[in-house]
Amino acid sequence: MMYRSMILRSRLFGMVFAVVLAIAAIGAGDVEAGDWPQILGPNRDGQAADESIAAWQDEPAVRWRVKCGAGYSGVVVAHGRVFLWHREGDSECLDCLSAADGSRQWRAEFPAIYRGGVNADRGPRSVPLVSGDQVFVYGAAGDLHAVNVSDGSTQWSRELRSDYDAEDGYFGAGGSPLLSGQVLIVPVGGENHAGLVAVDRQTGKTRWTAVDQEAAYASPVTIEIEGQARVVAVLRLKTVMLDPVTGEVLSEVDFGKRGPTVNAATPLVDHEKIFLTAAYGVGCRMLDMSATPPQDLWRSRDVISSHYVTPVRIDDYLYAITGREDYGTGELMCVRWSDGKVAWNQPDLGTAHLIAAGERVLAQCVSGRLVLFAADPKKFRSLAEVELPAGIYRSLPALVDGTLYCRRTISATEGELLAIELK
């Protein structure tokens, strides 16, 4: 009870609810080239492979728009279908839409029991994950569902947070499952060694549990160490590396801070290196995960401190949003990947989700401004800008075949999905 009371008293912290969006799992297989089967794209790094965005001269056209309910979940796109995860009334709804015109192909519904925390929105936070004939969704109350891609029928459901006595946290469940082989690895934050829970993708049955840690709003990623697939998971106060088959913890590092704080940005992986960042005085770390214990290659509290936005990397440079949205300190930075040296900063962009497309970066600002800029380590160069329809754009976007899928929040119970043509 003291924990929940502390949450409700954290007025300033309440503005960070968007952190729950920067989460999804990697490992989604059996999708077409150019699909966006999970948050941050096929490799969960914000890279839109084979996409190129021209600097628009006229305002980009909105090809279609679809009303939706509550939540901050971004969409995923696979096989010409768009999967939208949201809440209407007492149901969490997964809608399968045609990418061509937005028409609904089917809907799957589940009881919505999340009552809300420091933010009024009670919709789902994490992003769907498509693999093969399955789409997986994780609700705000910690219920995990496997749904058939073709017709929306439910294959299985698990009430993971209830099963493992996990707290609601600041904003409910937000981390998205990671698909590794035949298991889904979920940041649950449960009691009795259930910080992470692995379930069988076909049956939903628990394979293993691991780690006595509360869940963060970041999601697990995969990394290869000496030819072996490993999982790295950012939790409340630690980042751990595990064997995805057994759940054995192979190494851990401290990352996080006590108090009303969160870890939310998705880690970036480069071979055996991993980059972590968080706000609240935590900063960033570049780690060599092949060392025992993992070794810092560089770290700083003064370079990138991401509230919830995941940076993107182009060549040897990171393009990142640092600072806190609730304090109005979000700014764009260009930082050298190898050593953290700052190349430039652009203070007036604000908080924005980033997608890398070739040698350009697309920024979807929370305020509703869409900015295309050059991936130029010498200076910031805006190539095109446009104001999107009025709303708050905290949901992560997806970019597929020249179409940007943006979700705007209109109120605590109402939103809209836009398909914007950027070809």
TrEMBL record:
Gene3D superfamilies referenced in this protein's UniProt entry, alphabetically: YVTN repeat-like/Quinoprotein amine dehydrogenase
Coiled-coil region: none
InterPro entries, per the entry: PQQ_rpt_dom, Quinoprotein_ADH-like_sf, WD40/YVTN_repeat-like_dom_sf
Pfam families assigned: PQQ_2
Domain Pyrrolo-quinoline quinone repeat: 95-346
Designated name of the protein: Outer membrane biogenesis protein BamB
Provenance organism: Allorhodopirellula solitaria
Phylogenetic classification of the source organism: Bacteria, Pseudomonadati, Planctomycetota, Planctomycetia, Pirellulales
